[in-house]
Amino acid sequence: MTTFAVAPGGPLHGRLRVPGDKSISHRVLLLAALADGISEVEGLSDGGDVAHTLAIIGALGAGVEVVDAGTVRIRGGRLGPADHPLYVGNSGTGIRLLVGLLAGLPFGSVLDGDASIRHRPMERVLAPLRAMGAAVSGVDGSTNAPLTIDGGGLSGIEYSPPVASAQVKGCVLFAGLSADGPTTVVESSPTRAHTEELMAASGIDVSVGPGRVTVHPGRPVPFGHRVAGDPSQAAFWAVAAAVVAGSEVVVENVYAGPGRTGFVEVLARMGADIGHAADTGDLTVRGSALTGTVVPTHEVPGLVDEVPVLAVAAACAEGETRFCGVGELRVKESDRLATIASELGAMGARVAVDGDDLVVVGGRLRGADVDSHHDHRVAMACAVAALVADGPTTVSGWDAVDTSYPAFGRDLDRLRP
Ligand code: S3P
Hints:
Blueprint: E1 3-6, E2 13-16, H1 22-34, E3 37-42, H2 48-59, E4 63-68, E5 71-76, E6 86-87, H3 92-103, E7 108-112, H4 115-119, H5 123-131, E8 135-137, E9 147-150, E10 158-159, H6 166-176, E11 183-186, H7 194-201, E12 206-209, E13 212-215, E14 224-226, H8 231-243, E15 248-251, H9 262-269, E16 273-276, E17 283-286, E18 294-295, H10 307-315, E19 320-323, H11 336-346, E20 350-354, E21 357-361, E22 369-371, H12 376-386, E23 393-396, H13 408-415
Parallel strand pairs: 2-15, 3-14, 6-7, 10-11, 18-19, 22-23
Antiparallel strand pairs: 1-23, 3-5, 4-5, 7-9, 8-9, 11-13, 12-13, 15-17, 16-17, 19-21, 20-21
Helix pairs in contact: 1-2, 1-3, 1-7, 3-6, 5-6, 8-10, 8-12, 10-12
The protein binds shikimate-3-phosphate (S3P).
C-alpha cells in the first residue's frame, strides 16, 4: 500500500496535459478490435484501467502494436475465444462495455475484475443483454462478476435504462452491433455521448434523436483517432487552481463534448474564474473566492465523476453546497457518499449525506491521515484538499491513482514552485 504526502503551499502555476480521456480510450479500443484492418489511436489514457482493456482485446486475438507512449496500432476484425478469464482490474466501464461486445460474439468468455468489481452492480447490464437473448450469468447464480458469457444469437431491442448510465447505454449499443436488427436506447437524462459519437465516426450506422440512440448491426471500418484530454482529470487541477489563492493553471486539449463538462458550469456558478476554449479545449482557471451552490439532479450525469473534487471546492466555499440525487455515487469504485464524508470529514470539512443528497458546508480544512478506500478519485480529491489544509496530509492507498492518472504526483510537483 503506497502513501502520498502533501504539504499545503503557495499558488499553482503552469500549463499541463492530463491523460487521454478514459471513457473514450476504452471505446476506441473496442471499436478498433472489431474493425477489419489496422486502426491507429493516439493519446490513449495511460492508466491501469485502459491497459487492462488493451490486454483483453489482445487476448481475444486483436493485434496490438505499441508505437510509443499513448500511440497504439490495432489490427482488428478476427476475434476469438481467449484461453483464460479476461481481467478488467478496477474498471467498471471496461467490464460493462466488454460484456455487451462479447455477448454478441459467437464464442464463450469469462470477465472478472478486482474485489471492487466483484461487488459492483452488473444487473443493470445483464438485464438488457438477457432481453436481447444473451446467455450471460454472474457467479453462483448472482449477477456479480465473474461474468460468464456464451455469446451470439442476439435480437435487437428498444431499452430504457432505469438508471442514467453511459456504461449501460454503451453496453447495449455494443451488443447491438451483433444483433439481428436495430437496437435503440432511450434515455430520460442525457449521458456522455462517446459510444454513439465514436461508432458514427468509425462508419457504424447510428442515428441519434432527442433522448434516443439507434444502432444498426454492422462492423466499424478501421479508423484513426486522437484522444482528447480527460475532463475528469482536468477537474482536479481546475478545483486546485480555483481554491489556492493566486493560482493560474491551463490544462490543454480537454474534451469539450456533451455530458462531460458540467463541472465547469458548476465552478463558474460558484464564482470560479474559469474558461474552456471551444477551439483548443484549453481549460484556464485562476484562484478566486467561491460560494456554495445547488447542483440539481439533472446536472449529475454530466459531472458524476467530478463530485469528489467538487466537494472539495464546496468545502472551501462560503456557505452550503447541495449535490442533489447523487445516490449512484454509492456504487462507484467506492461508496463515494461514505468515503467523501469520512475522508474530507477527517480533514475538518462539514459533509453530510441527506438521503441521496450530499451536503457540504464551507470552512477551514486541516491536514490529516486519510485513505483512498481503493478509489482513485477519492485519493486525488484528498490531495487537492490538502493543498489548502492547515498542516500536512498523508493519503494512504495512493496506488489507486494508477488506474487513471499515474503521473498525478509528478504533475502536482510541476505546478508548484
Ligand atoms: C462512464 C460512465 C459513468 C462514469 C464512469 C465512466 C463511461 O458511469 O462514472 O467513470 O465511460 O461510460 P455510469 O455510466 O455508470 O454513470
